[in-house]
Amino acid sequence: MSITSQAELAGMQQVSEAVGLTLKEMRAYARPGLTTKDLDNFGGKILKKLGARSAPRLSYGFPGWTCISVNHEVAHGIPTAKKVLREGDLINIDVSAELNGFWADNGGSFVLGQDTRKHQPLVNTSKEILHKAIHHIKTGVRIADVGLLIETEAKKAGYRVIKNLAGHGIGRKLHEEPSSILNCYDRFNKARFKKNSVVAIETFIATDSMYANETNDGWTLIGNRGGFVAQHEHTIVVTDDQPLILTAMNEIWN
Fold first, then answer.
1. Which of 55, 113, 184, 214 has the fewest Cβ atoms surrounding its Cβ within 10 A?
2. What is the largest CA-CA distance in the chain?
3. Please, which residues bridge with residue 161 across strands?
4. For residue range 19-31, what is the model confidence (pLDDT) as tens digits?
5. Stated pTM of the model
6. Angle 6-29/36-49 helices, nearest 10 degrees?
7. CA 70 to CA 100: how far, in whole Å?
8. Can you tell me the distance from the alpha carbon of 176 to that of 39, in angstroms, rounded to the nearest whole number?
9. CA–CA separation, 47 vs 45, rounded Å?
């Protein structure tokens, strides 16, 4: 969507704060011994308290309030009572929701407890690249150039990017145009970021894989070459200068 009034901006700020707070609280609540279902139910209660509705459940019938992916899972992990969190796990939580007709999306990967499996450098790189990408975005910047920046910075750090997952427009629906804000350079994409547009920008930084494939459960994505992936995401408003980061409350850069 494109912000055309203070009322629309206020609506986007409200839903963005809801998903940002939910992500922040879920990260703080996560601990060894919890199941991903426990963690998801905790997040679902926060969303409900704030009057927000789970976006993946509302839009696609996803079997959870949030997406929780663990270790080798890239994205869209289904919360389940069978999956127990352990010290050193690489966890990704993606929280998106609708509130009063407005939609926002955010996510973040983190290491649970002690970094026993040495995932923290991957997590840090994903956060740093998202920061660089977002602060490169302004009115008129080519979408493909942001993909090039993400891909180039990942290679510099010794990593790859997942090429078939992307950020997207958002606001009045979960997924809007532009639909393919890729983590890599697409020379055929001539589109540019437009002033006052709302977009969800996300990184998918990988150790080994370049593509994500759907598993038999119909939701969970894993890498085509294994390894691990870190994802971080903010919903922003594009301006003529620095973007307005609507989901800053999630504190994923802290």
1. 214
2. 48
3. 205
4. 999 999 999 999 9
5. 0.97
6. 150
7. 31
8. 28
9. 5
